[in-house]
């Protein structure tokens, strides 16, 4: 079977991880060993050469699609040369681009960049409005038209499959069928391990941080050792999480809500990209404008 090169290029925080957890089980799909290698984005990786890149895939005899799921590839301001690099090596490549309500996605990425990329393990001390004054990535990554326009200088739009996060959440099987049809591989039953999928959420991060902080309390830690694991988890979920200490710790890792005036301004700022999505998908998305 001839292998085709496929890229899930984003957008970040739009259920690309959900899609990964489903597609990785397809017998005709091979992903890179590292979920997001970022080879075509990071200069230090790209300089290692295409032979190095091709060794990243877990190939097997049934492979019909090799998928690189790096959301950095749709971050054109930070990594402007990605589409050209991909074209130079894989001019016949296909792409999957998942889009989420742009305002909700931007807020989610703000939380992710704080908790996972910039200040892991530290309380969220800046509001969304304060954060985007110095870090524009959450805003720019929601400008879907701008991100794709650069790719269209090298690839025809027919090479792209555009999906919506809300469709993945509401009808996963249908969206996976679309992926299989786009790649020309057999359809299969979409199964999702929700526990794995939840590892990508901000709430999961907050829970881990809360548990770690509570473990640092020596009295609580040694007291917990007196109980078996199942009982410890029950006590944590039903008693410890409800204590003033736990609630205070949790509040430190809970971002303040976006201001309503900010949301209204972003709806205006994103109106062009929303209109582009509507036209591309031949679909009205009135809820994206608010």
- Measure the end-to-end span: 46 Å
Q: The CATH topology of the largest domain, please?
A: Rossmann fold
CATH superfamily of the largest domain: P-loop containing nucleotide triphosphate hydrolases
- Strands, total number: 5
Largest sheet: 5 strands, parallel
Summarize this structure briefly.
The chain is of the alpha/beta class and about 290 residues long. The protein is about 50% helix and about 10% strand. About 0% of the residues have low confidence.
Please, could you describe this protein's structure?
With 290 residues, the protein is an alpha/beta fold. The chain folds into 2 domains: 225 residues, P-loop containing nucleotide triphosphate hydrolases (Rossmann fold), CATH 3.40.50; 52 residues, no CATH class. It has a 5-stranded parallel beta sheet with strand order 2-3-1-4-5. The protein starts with a strand and ends in a 9-residue tail after the last helix. The relative contact order is 0.14.
Can you tag this structure with a few keywords?
single chain, 290 residues, alpha/beta, Rossmann fold, 5-stranded parallel beta sheet, 17 helices, globular
Summarize the SSE layout with pairings:
Layout: E1 4-10, H1 16-23, E2 29-31, H2 43-46, H3 50-54, E3 65-68, H4 82-89, E4 94-99, H5 102-118, H6 128-134, H7 137-140, H8 144-151, E5 160-164, H9 165-170, H10 172-183, H11 194-197, H12 202-215, H13 218-224, H14 229-238, H15 244-252, H16 260-269, H17 271-281
Parallel strand pairs: 1-3, 1-4, 2-3, 4-5
């Amino acid at each position: 079977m001839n292998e085709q090169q496929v890229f899930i290029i984003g957008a970040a925080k739009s259920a690309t991880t959900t899609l990964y957890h489903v597609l990785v089980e397809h017998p005709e799909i091979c992903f890179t060993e590292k979920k997001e290698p970022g080879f075509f984005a990071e200069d230090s990786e790209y300089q290692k050469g295409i032979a190095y890149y091709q060794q990243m895939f877990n190939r097997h005899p049934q492979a019909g699609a090799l998928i690189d799921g790096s959301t950095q590839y749709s971050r054109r301001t930070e990594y402007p040369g990605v589409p050209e690099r991909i074209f130079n090596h894989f001019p016949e490549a296909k792409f999957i681009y998942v889009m989420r309500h742009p305002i909700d996605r931007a807020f989610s990425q703000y939380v992710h960049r704080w908790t996972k990329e910039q200040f892991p393990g530290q309380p969220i001390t800046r509001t969304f409005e304060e954060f985007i004054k110095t870090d524009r990535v959450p805003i720019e990554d929601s400008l879907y038209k701008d991100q794709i326009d650069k790719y269209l200088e090298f690839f025809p739009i027919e090479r792209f499959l555009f999906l919506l996060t809300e469709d993945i959440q509401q009808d996963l099987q249908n969206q996976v069928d679309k992926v299989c049809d786009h790649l020309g591989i057999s359809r299969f039953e979409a199964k999702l391990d929700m526990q794995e999928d939840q590892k990508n959420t901000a709430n999961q991060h907050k829970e881990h941080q809360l548990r770690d902080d509570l473990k640092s309390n020596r009295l609580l830690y040694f007291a917990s050792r007196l109980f078996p694991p199942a009982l410890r988890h029950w006590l944590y979920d039903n008693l410890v999480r409800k204590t003033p200490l736990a609630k205070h710790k949790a509040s430190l890792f809970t971002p303040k809500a976006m201001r309503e005036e900010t949301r209204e301004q972003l709806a205006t700022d994103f109106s062009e990209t929303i209109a582009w999505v509507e036209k591309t998908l031949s679909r009205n998305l009135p809820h994206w404008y608010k």
